[in-house]
Amino acid sequence: MKIVVLAGGISTERDVSLSSGSMIYRALKKNGHQAVLLDVYLGYEGEIQGIFDREEDWAAQTGAVSEKNPDLEAVKALRRDGDRSFFGPNVLAVCGMADMVFMALHGANGEDGKIQACFELMGIPYTGTDFVSSAMAMDKGITKDIFKAYDIPTPAGFRLKEGEPQTERTFFPCIVKACRGGSSVGVCIARDEGEYERAKQEAFRYDSEIIVEQYIKGREFSVGVMDGRALPVIEIAPKQGFYDYKNKYQAGSTVETCPAELSEEKTRQMQAVAERVFAALRMKSYARMDFMMSESGEIFCLEANTLPGMTPTSLLPQEAAVLGMDFPGLCEKIISVHADV
Question: Which own/partner pairs from 268-273 qualify as long-range (CB within 8 Å, at least 24 positions apart)?
């Protein structure tokens, strides 16, 4: 198949996306596909005729994930045509020539449904869930509303818009995070008023609306879901601090155990909640749900990820591996769901 792996962009998760895209691209090449890796924002300014027949390594110039957020202003400065359009040169044209677009995007303008909606209007097939569920899952406030409507256990909390007075009582400790952020960028734990004010200031750097929610002390887990069925549960235990951006993507920062050391009852319970979230948010293909389990054994779903990371340290590939599915096999499974092959 002729496949465009779409990555990059200008979200705070740009570097993660490029790492995911590079791995997916190489796996697709190994599987025998005619694959091209494109940065959705920077595009491609060369000749596109015969682009899928070239033998060049399209992933050669993508770097590893850094410990710091990417310099997005420096990325924007690379666009010769300015940035009136989010799509870089020739991106839509090349995607239109492909049999499938493999979505390796993370964060804003990738997981929020905008690109998915554009592709649906243009008749371009793509991997992952559709624009409706992408938009709902990207907004943590909407996600929480849906969780409550479907009786899905989730930490108590409230939304707060920038510039508006807070009417809800603050409880400590609490988690403060951007409403439409990802990869734990801008997420802080606040234990008193001083930390709370600093946490709000940090979260508002990334979004005009933030979430303040109950801090759950305990163990952290994640559960992937493919075609509506849960994968094995994986436990995440950072060596220092919590599961922030650095601990997610720097090898050796976190101990990940899959299958997680849980009783059969707790495992089934968590997997069942993950499948309920998948259905409640009207997801398709695959996704990943993040959980906390309190010291008393209560399970709380934190959020849903519609385009889970596919980097060397990502969780979904580790869960699939327990079932005997290697990385190229996982990529092929994701394609097959959409291509009906």
Answer: 269/299, 270/221, 270/223, 270/233, 270/299, 271/223, 271/230, 271/233, 272/230, 273/152, 273/153, 273/223, 273/299, 273/301
145 in Cβ contact with 159 (< 8 Å): no
Sheet holding 174-178, edge to edge: 157-161, 209-214, 174-178, 188-190
Q: Locate all alpha helices (DSSP H) within the chain, ordered by sequence.
A: 14-30, 72-76, 91-97, 114-122, 131-138, 140-149, 193-203, 245-249, 264-280, 315-322, 327-339
What does the block give as tokens for 300?
A: 């709380």
- Spatial separation of the C-alpha atoms in residues 205 and 109, rounded to whole Å: 17
Sequence-distant (6+) residues with CB within 8 A of 32 are: none
Name which of 21, 71, 17, 33 is nearest 341 in CA terms. Answer: 33
β-strands 209-214, 174-178 pairing: antiparallel
Q: What is the largest CA-CA distance in the chain?
A: 60
What is the distance, to the nearest Å, from the Cα of residue 270 to the centroid of all Cα atoms in its chain?
20
For the chain, percent helix, then strand, then coil, each to nearest 5? 35, 20, 45
pLDDT, one tens digit per residue, over 107-130 is 888 899 999 999 999 999 999 999
Three-state DSSP at 262 gives coil
* Average pLDDT value for residue range 76-92: 89
pLDDT digits (tens, 9 = 90+) for 26-39: 999 999 999 999 99
Q: Alpha-carbon distance 65 to 127, whole Å?
A: 23
Length reported for the chain: 341
Question: What is the distance between the alpha carbons of residues 291 and 276, in angstroms, rounded to a whole number?
Answer: 13
Dist CA 145 CA 218 (whole Å): 24
Closest by Cα among 166, 204, 158 to 185: 204
100-103 vs 2-7, strand pairing mode: parallel
Q: What is the pTM of this model?
A: 0.89
Nearest to 129 by CA among 322, 281, 235: 281
